[in-house]
Amino acid sequence: MGLRTADEYRRSLRDGRRVMFRGSWVADVTEHPVLRKAIDHAAIDYQLAEDPRYRDLFTTEEGGEPISRFYRVPQGPEDLLLRMRAIEAATTEGRTVVTLIHEIGTDAIFALLRVASACDGAKGTGYLGRVRALLERARHEDWALAVAQTDTKGDRSLGPKDQPDPDQYLRIVERRPDGIVVRGAKVHTSVSMNANALIVVPTRAMRPGEEDYALSFWVPIDVEGLSLVASPYLSSRRSEIEHPLSASHKMVETFTWFDDVFVPWEQVFLAGEVEFAGPLALSFVDFHRFTAVAYKLPLLDLLVGSASLLAELNGIETAGHVRDKLAQLAMYAATVRKLLEASALTGRTDSPGVFVPDTLTVNTAKYHFAHGFHEALRDVQDVAGGLLVTAPSWDDLQSEDVGPALRKYLRGAQGSADDRLRAFYLVTDLAVSDLAGYHAVLAVHAEGSLEAEKLAAARHFDFEGKKALARRMAGIDA
Ligand SMILES: Cc1cc2nc3c(=O)[nH]c(=O)nc-3n(C[C@H](O)[C@H](O)[C@H](O)COP(=O)(O)OP(=O)(O)OC[C@H]3O[C@@H](n4cnc5c(N)ncnc54)[C@H](O)[C@@H]3O)c2cc1C
Hints:
The protein is an alpha+beta fold. It has helices at about 5-10, 35-40, 45-50, 55-60, 75-95, 105-125, 125-140, 275-315, 320-345, 360-385, 385-390, 395-400, 405-410, 415-430, 435-445, 450-460, 465-475, and strands at about 20, 25, 60, 65-70, 145-150, 170-175, 180-190, 195-200, 215-220, 225-230, 255-265, 270, 350, 355. Helix content is about 50%, strand content about 15%. The strands form four sheets. Strands 2-1-10-11-7-6 form a six-stranded mixed sheet, with no helix packed on it. Strand 13 (about 350) and strand 14 form a beta hairpin. The longest helix is centred in the middle third of the chain and has 38 residues, at about 275-315. The chain is globular, with a radius of gyration of 24 Å. The N and C termini lie far apart (about 60 Å). The model has no long low-confidence stretch (mean pLDDT about 95). The site of flavin-adenine dinucleotide (FAD) has 21 residues, from strand 5, strand 7 and helix 15.
């Protein structure tokens, strides 16, 4: 097989999965009015692989079989750059919302290849073969994958073993000859309700005494004991004209509850090796922050483009403060893009032959994006004006009674009032609406918090080398 069609993907989601939406179990996620929207959105990944305009970017070949580009294990900068372009294209098609169903799971698989190889080398475990078996199967059957890393975490000042409730981090509650039983819950799990399988990785480093929490494995979504409680955020119906981005595009996150789920050993990648929990958590985010920044690029380009468009329509393009804001937005978008490319170009090959983006650069890229995002929203809102939240509806514009007046008075410097309102609707959806709120929280929290990115970057900066430079310049003997 190797490649599935969008319809084959949709059909694959009709199984015994337990998904709850607003207090009711969903019999078939593909028929649910809200969840179906997220599934159609995710299907873009499969549609683009079939589309002659994108086929070369979205597919490649392995062992004589056509496969999704996302399943290619990066061998050098070129693979990462092509992956970046594919993510960017899918997110543009998804109108700033990432598809994620191939991206996040392969990020985890690449990390697992590295850490399983290191763990097997140090401890004689047999994990690498299991990771390769998952990769081959998922690639051959073109699976959609979700990744559950973030635990509920209870009291953030305490580690897993010190929590009053031992289930605040997902843990092994039973070890059997044929596998393990796991209990706990993960949160914010994107695309889990519309994936075929779920990969679990630790959320943090673990200490001795936390062996039951040093845990990684995969399960099919319909495994017994797994329940997904879907977030209702962004689920209201909306018009395509007034919400040109969010009317047809969304992701769904779930509260992901493991109520004593049995996992056979062949699906387990870490079970007690505490010293490898931290490296696995960090290795996953090396790849996942690369994915994250790649899918921010269309969002940043659209912020610059729509602010420029409204500046033109409002007749303020040449005003000094507007030119300054547009230049800031342009530099912001360009810096994030170039940092991401640099992280691919300066990456390194790690055992067992996986090319990894440069950790310092990719974390700097993600941090720079997240740190500047709210300021960028403010600048776009500033350039646009108050109609962002007070504009009449498209229905009002069609009214015989008020439509002519609206068309007369809501014209700007050029173009029709209709076009100007459409531009406002776009910017409202992009920079003011519940989608904008989603993007804003996504910027700060998803793929790790600002602090996590800063720490990861600082850990890879050569402070000692720079201190030595300062000593030399100061004439202090080393
Ligand atoms: C839209 C969205 C999609 C996501 N998708 C996924 C997904 O698919 N899979 C997945 O696994 N996760 C996913 N995440 C989770 C994301 O990685 C987390 O939100 C992020 O790691 C922060 O965790 P948290 O939400 O529990 O916040 P917290 O960890 O509670 O962070 C809140 C604040 O507390 C601070 N803080 C936390 N702990 C400490 C401490 N010990 N000391 C000092 N300060 C601390 C943080 O720095 C931050 O400022 C997603 C999140 C969002 C918003």
